[in-house]
Amino acid sequence: MNDRLDTEERRELPDSVYGLPERREYPMPDAAHVRAAEAYFRYCPEDLKPQLARAILRFAKEYGVDVESPTVLQYAGE
Hints:
This protein is mainly α. The chain is 47% helix and 8% strand. It has a two-stranded antiparallel ribbon.
């Protein structure tokens, strides 16, 4: 799977696979999307970055993805 979801695919995803579930942004249903969320982290609103960073690390662990971004790690408190 690539890191692109069409509107229907996004609509079908449960809130639990989103990095920001209340906004339904940064879906991470698989490893490719975890890497995409890491790559697009800089576009996240500043006040939501800690929440998203923790979600990225949680999903990365689940899918066996190594998070390399020092910024994501910093916001997650790692």
